[in-house]
Amino acid sequence: MSDATPGRGRLIPGEAISGRGGALLAILCVAQVLEVLGVTVVIVALPAIGTDLGIATAELQLVVTIYAAIYGGLLLSAGRVADLVDRRLVFACGLLLTLVGAVVCAVASTSIVLLIGRAVQGLGGAVVTPAALSLLTATFPTGRGRRIALSAWTAAAAGGGALGFVVGGVLVDGTGWRGVFWLLAVVTVLVLIAMWWVVPSTPARQRPEGLDLTGSACVTSGLVLLVWGAGLVDRPSDAPVHPAVPVLLGCALLILFVVVEKRGRAPLVAWTELSNARFMRANGAAFVNTATTSASGTLVALVAQRVLELDARQTGLMLLPFSMMVVLGSLTGSWWLRRPLDHGMAAGLGVVALAMTALAVATTTRSVTGLVVAVALAGLGLSWAAVTSTSAATLALPERRQGVASGAVNTAAQIGTALGVAVLLAVAGTIGVEDTSSGYTVAFIVAAVIAATYSILLLILSRGTDRPRTVANDI
């Protein structure tokens, strides 16, 4: 059958943004929005879920944590699977898992059933994200099409985050919390139908050598433990184990993973990739970006409600400029993709550092206007760093390894979010108390120092090495 046949042909690198390429980009971005909605809409519904199912407040956070742990832990392995088999098939399987998880959650009558559904949703998200991003980067490998596609991808994630809080609130008030999961199920079905006709098959160009099961087990277990442990840091008294236990076990498994990959015959991540300076710098930028900005969003919400005594609606409005600027910054961030990517990552993190400093000042002076301006600035920096780090990570590896590249950069971002929130909340809690600004101010300063340090490091390390290049250079 010809390549023009919807959904049945082979992937054609260099597809135009218009026509079939545009339809493919739209499907992939909607899938990204869907996975982000799976987190944000549920956060809004947590109080109603706890009341209806009788889940204690201390256990309610598991509804979010179990999703994050499974999602973050399996991204890398799922990305490798997408490289070894048809990415379209992997993408469809991920959507089916997301659908099953959403339906299980929608009909759940006990907390156990709900948590099982959330775990399945997390698994589906981990499969969808690297498959979708690798389809995107393989379809738009260079030029204007790639710049537009990556900007749209980042904007879709930000838009989904902002939309989730609004839609979640409307659904919970209008139809109850189950309506949140039914919405996710319906949207997933629509994406599945559309992808059948739009997304092309992409058979592996290499002879499948099998999945590195030992490496996959080490990295998946290590990341799950790390994310789970980080999620327990801010409430150690309610945790089943001390947070340090899963965090240390997770770190040990990740170290073992590096050893296994160096010696393995068919590694999940080759040693040449782990020692690829461009690839590792990009993943480091993704980690620092989310570690500082995701944590700052949580801290701003706490400052608004505990220090400034604003209600939930006012807090939501205060954070809205953050998402708006992420969308705007993503759409204009393609400018950086025409320049040395290390410079773009450094600029994004530099703006983040400036925003964190402004947040520290606004918190100390208790200025609502200052906080709003600072969070908007943080959104701009996040978008620039996200677009450029994603592009840099995927350009650093050949087309046949785009699943691994996509999984790695998303894993770095997930781990950054988990550890950043945990560490900065711990800093805020150690130095201050709930109704004072001192702890939050110090936490913002720490975030500013981290972002500024990595920004400077990127500029130093990239001297004489950051020249324009394409995926084709490595194929």
Number of strands: 0
The shape is globular
Helix segment tally? 16
Q: What fraction strand?
A: under 5%
What structural class do helix, strand and pairing data support? mainly alpha
Backbone CA Rg: 21 Å
**Could you say what the CATH topology of the largest domain is called?**
Growth Hormone, Chain: A
**Low-pLDDT regions:** 1-8, 468-475
Number of domains: 3
What is the oligomer described by this structure? single chain
Task: Explain what this protein looks like in three dimensions.
- By secondary structure, the chain is an all-alpha fold.
- The protein has three domains: 184 residues, Growth Hormone, Chain: A; 55 residues, no CATH class; 185 residues, Growth Hormone, Chain: A.
- The chain contains 16 helices and no strands.
- Helix 3 runs antiparallel to helix 4 and helix 13 packs antiparallel against helix 14.
- It is globular and about 55 Å long.
- The N terminus and C terminus are likely disordered.
In short:
This protein has 475 residues and is mostly helical. The protein is built from 16 helices and no strands.
Topology:
Blueprint: H1 20-53, H2 57-60, H3 62-84, H4 87-107, H5 111-139, H6 143-174, H7 178-198, H8 213-232, H9 244-263, H10 271-274, H11 277-307, H12 312-332, H13 341-365, H14 368-395, H15 402-431, H16 438-461
Helix pairs in contact: 1-3, 1-5, 1-6, 1-7, 3-4, 3-5, 3-8, 3-15, 4-5, 4-7, 5-6, 5-15, 6-12, 6-14, 8-9, 8-15, 11-12, 11-13, 11-14, 11-15, 11-16, 12-14, 13-14, 13-16, 14-15, 15-16
Quick tags:
mainly alpha, 16 helices, Growth Hormone, Chain: A, single chain, disordered N terminus, 3 domains, 475 residues
